[in-house]
């Protein structure tokens, strides 16, 4: 009866017809349909080369204005591009500009439209080049292409079409086909394969040299990689989509690095020893003309090398080599100084990720930052004044702040002192930066700041959203640390129901991700999930999230403790946290539930199966159920190959422990999930049926890992809400 009454109350609220408090409660439609909590951003912001001006898109024009005149209403700025003048040369129809990029000399504009998403980062689109001097528009190609990029001198555009690399000469209109062996599911030139894109956060697979004379590009030979397939149910007969997906222990693409000489048309090959079982996760031109850096990582991902090659290819020189007892993360914190002899990078060799400087002519390295905290990103370098700008967790593992420090490690300053999370984008010249600041309970404020800390201007405060939020009945939020019975200190946040009464006992609902290096306990606005958790708090639930061992921001030992036994310590920590909260006088320890998505869905499933005495229910959205089914770059980084560590794969697979499940279980998956395949859900269902365990499920036809589009998200969260109200 209690659950039935609560469900009836929710339906009233969802319909928008019930108001029991002076401030109203959140509905699912508020979150997923009506845009009630939609935040405003700063769209089309582009910093100009001089470091003193920026461009913003205003309707169909790009307006330039000085940073120091940001709040001067009298200065409306200057039109640098009228997008209404951009039309397709063939049809004459105006181009609906979806994105843009300036040439290096800022005399041309590359724009794109009709974007078609491919995987997480990659997309195909129609591209055009608009000359800002004569207002002439040129189509880059007749159809959709990928990764179109202007050369630094603005005279050419390189792009990928049908797995081949092309160059368009904007002066002669000549289309040059650089490669000819590209073939779907076989050879890729100038782009990367699925697993590189997903696990190394890569997109474009080529790089113009700074002098526009060369293009370094990847060539992937996928011939030995096995295909995965999934059915798409849009037609009378389902269509089968097939792509190369290397699972744990399976063969990878053979990857080569090539250099195209623009003037001669010659293609040189860099000898990266592509026959080895290895990865080439980054290529980058150095500050020395004609010198290309290549990062090489072994299959176990515990040995990393930085190699230098000349533009003529051939043999390279090993400049720096790092090894680890566990694994080495790939990142973009590599900056070559213009002096041609030093570069900055980050490394966790001393237990925490810090900034180091390496003199590759002398072979010497020195650390610039130090302390029991992590450098997260290298944001900018002022070489003239010898100042580095970086974002770190120096203010605590739950917050991000940006600092400046001199090359000698002195003169450190916090440029973003307000409590919370700061995500910054440095403008060219390193004088100004955009700061996106938020807290767990407050949406983003977007600020423009200068690096000498003398000026802060507000670009967007989201005042309308903040005012609208005052109409709602919010539960209070708090951060804290807990100590498990294993003696492990864990960070958490907690949302208490409105009008919380400590003399009462409340059900507890836990949100988990818990994957390697990924945190949920952040003092930043998380949007829809935070709103849904607040909605559940309004229904009388305490909602918490805990960062277990394996998550980031607390040093290498904490993050890499899960090596070779992914899931084991994470599950122990989540169950330990549940016990800790269950011992609080205001928590009903017989009504503890947990939910998560992706790795979080894996962990929520494992918690229900391995700690049935703790958890009454679990929701798993798009979960991995066996790491044998997941891709090799991610999985082998933490577990090595299944041939070498079978126990690490099987001892913490939820499939192996379904017979222990006593609580209620909801399994959710999209049938077109190219990341965590529907196979994971299918095999979990098979195991549950064979063990004669009852469960609930919801599958979303032709939806990928994100389960979005149309009413999918609204439907999903309505299903999950109903499950929480009925089962917890």
Total number of β-strand segments?
43
User: What top-tier CATH class of one domain fits best?
Assistant: Alpha Beta
Radius of gyration: 27 Å
Helix-residue proportion: 10-25%
CATH architecture assignment of one domain? 3-Layer(aba) Sandwich
Quickly count the helices. Answer: 12
Shape: globular
Sheet/helix structural class? alpha+beta
Question: What is the arithmetic mean of pLDDT?
Answer: 94
CATH topology of one domain: Rossmann fold
Can you describe this structure?
There is one protein chain. The chain is α+β, with helices and mostly antiparallel strands and 728 residues long. A hairpin with a 5-residue loop joins strand 20 (278-285) and strand 21 (291-298). The longest helix is centred in the C-terminal third of the chain and has 16 residues, at 712-727. The protein is globular, with a radius of gyration of 27 Å. The model is unreliable at 1-21 (pLDDT under 50).
Task: Write a short abstract of this structure.
With 728 residues, the protein is α+β, with helices and mostly antiparallel strands.
List keywords for this structure.
single chain; 728 residues; alpha+beta; Rossmann fold; 8-stranded antiparallel sheet; 8-stranded mixed sheet; 12 helices; 16% helix; 36% strand; globular; disordered N terminus
